Amino acid sequence: xxxxxxxxxxxxxxxxxxxxxxxxxxxxxxxxxxxxxxxxxxxxxxxxxxxxxxxxxxxxxxxxxxxxxxxxxxxxxxxxxxxxxxxxxxxxxxxxxxxxxxxxxxxxxxxxxxxxxxxxxxxxxxxxxxxxxxxxxxxxxxxxxxxxxxxxxxxxxxxxxxxxxxxxxxxxxxxxxxxxxxxxxxxxxxxxxxxxxxxxxxxxxxx
Length: 207
Description:
Layout: H1 2-26, H2 28-45, H3 48-70, H4 77-86, H5 88-105, H6 108-130, H7 133-146, H8 149-166, H9 173-181, H10 184-206
């Protein structure tokens, strides 16, 4: 029995010796020594107060990690990644800074004025809603959009401005005015304006 134990111990010592030789050859033993020295120096430099602080930091970190897991914040990570990738997060930060600077620059008097302006605007909106003005404006805007009135008017202004920049200077006098009045386009324009005035007058008389 003793011989068996001695043989087993010799085998274990031989394996340990081979492992040490391998560590020495690879330089791992030196690294282990340096690591042990580093850990020993760190342990010597740590006071009870520092150990308590490290334990508190570790506890707070674990508590924060638990809250993050329970709040399912990982589901918001794709959206946050998209905001960072598109640069929207930077815009949000700049907007928040701008609003913070605006809030810092506001005094009590300006805040009171803005509050009064907001109240008046809400009252005006409520009155316009109750009297049906908003509905009528929306109806008129819808009709203007369907009939392309605003688009045509803007195009007419652009065409008139371009043509006026290229047209020769007016001759002036009655003869020049007579030349303009003889043109069919001028007569059609005057006729259109007269019809607009006629319909506008009819609407006013109804009211």
